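User: I'm putting together notes for a lab meeting next week and I want to include a structural view of one of the chains we've been expressing. I don't have a solved structure, so I'd like a prediction I can at least talk through. The sequence is below, exactly as it appears in our construct file.
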Amino acid sequence: MPDELTRGHRDELPQSHRDDLPHRRRMLVLAICCTSLLIVTLDNTVLNVALPTLQKEFDASVSGMQWTVDAYTLVLASLLMLAGSTADRIGRRKVFVTGLVVFTLGSALCSLAPSLELLVVFRMVQAVGGSMLNPVAMSIITNTFTDPRERARAIGVWGGVAGISMAAGPLVGGVLVDTVGWRSIFLVNLPVGLAALLLTLRYVPESRAPSPRRPDPVGQLLVIVLLGALTFAIIEAPRAGWTSPLILGSAGVAAAGLAGLLRYEPRRAQPLIDLRFFRSAPFSGATVIAVCAFASLSGFLFLSTLYLQDVLGLDALHAGLWMLPIAAMALVCGPLSGRLVGSRGPRVPLLIAGMTMTASGILFAAFEAENSSGPRLIGYVLFGLGFGFVNAPITNTAVSGMPRAQAGVAAAVASTSRQIGTTLGVAVIGAVLASGVASSSYAKDFTAASRPAWWIIAGCGLAVLVLGAVTSGRRARESARRTAEQLTTAR
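Assistant: Thanks for the context. Below is the predicted structure for the 491-residue chain, given as structure tokens.
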């Protein structure tokens, strides 16, 4: 037994063996999973401070800059549920290792990209690998930490790493862009990805769902159609015209994809998206909160980065330093949020997150906080505090009430919601900005054009506050219990 637990496994590790993993071994598995989360999530935002550099080097438009960010998050959002269900079926460690290889290869290709178009393509390759990491890592964690309190603390660490990596992306990117160049943003993934790969092969046990789900290619195709067409319509609308046939056609395709999902998925015995999950009020609330919170974050970083560099004229390093308060607050508040979730439930962290994110958005929308250093700093601290508190309750709520056999799918839905939010945040905020900014007077028009965008960010924070209050009460918890019973009985 001790020898078996100190090496990697080619076959599934029995549940009793997983429960007996020593504490240090469980902590190591958590660290490996968090490392994968760090590099995948960091690449959501690390490119933000490099956007002005890419704009100059490749003569990119606002929509071109949006696509360098959204090509990555769009592919992640489209494939996360497929990766989660596939991992439950064929083996979580096997899919996790494949993801690390593909992500590292995609990072190497991004560092060599000779044009903006190829950078977008290589970002998509990178995201294919990334889609196999986050939901699978969360499933590994939920199957490694079986005690509810210990699992909540582990998820709190996971949420803290997610918040830190998202918020710290601009700071890390700023340092790399100013010292080495934008290509180094991707090169740093290579040693980290290789180290994570070797550690995974050595220490992470294999696990599968006892009742694996069958593939759902039609559902997967409908997800890709829905998200791809919707994102394309939002990003390209300012350039093509909101009422142009291209944009209306894309919106129609997205609507058809959504209608197809709602009609087709409930008819399958084992759908890609089990819509019964959404009978749980906490699960539904966590899903929408994730979309709103991450849309707010991605929009916040997109606006702030462009303002600091293109309007104030700061270099990438100093623009990144301005994001330090967000990263610092996420670092402090992420683990604290996890402990609160473990001891008191998700309600308090969600209310704190909603209030502070809303206050930050209003500070910029109504009082133009970006124009003065003091108010700008306060706005960044408030936003970082809110974002630091929001991650742990999202993840914990999404997976804690579901049968363990479906942990991969439940975690994938939560991760997908984050990526959808990130994608929509950049798409919507960028579209609002592009609609109000003329290329001939970019810096002059930027502040006025960003005002509606800041109100959207404030609205996202308010949605987190309201949904956090509504979906964390006694009735909501009862709906989660009934949903879990129905899912277990239906298996």
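A couple of points you could mention at the meeting. Residues 217-269 form one domain. The first helix runs from residue 15 to 19.

User: Perfect, that's what I needed.
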